[in-house]
Specification:
The protein is an all-alpha fold and 107 residues long. Helices cover 74% and strands 0% of the residues. The chain has five helices and no strands.
Length: 107
Amino acid sequence: WENPQVRPKLLGILQAAVNGEEGAAQMREYLAHKIFEEAGKAIGIAGMDIYQAAEMLKIPVINLNAAVGQVWGVVLLRYVVKLEPIASASVDELIDLVSPTIQRYLG
């Protein structure tokens, strides 16, 4: 999110998701498959999806949904709504704020 070259694409996905079913379907595909494919590549598991990631972590899939929702919620407040103080908080502040919750979701 902090990469200015990547942010516009991700914000486009977010905005499309809240504006219509087609965008929402694209976001579901991204959140259930694409991000986990990339994560899988990083750890040597080709074609990983949200279900495999949950199985690997030994957590319910809904916990992964909640963790992803936490991140996207911060993104929405920071970059779309621009709600202070989240909008101007440092990355380290945000990580310190949300990481305990995400860690709890991920077991």
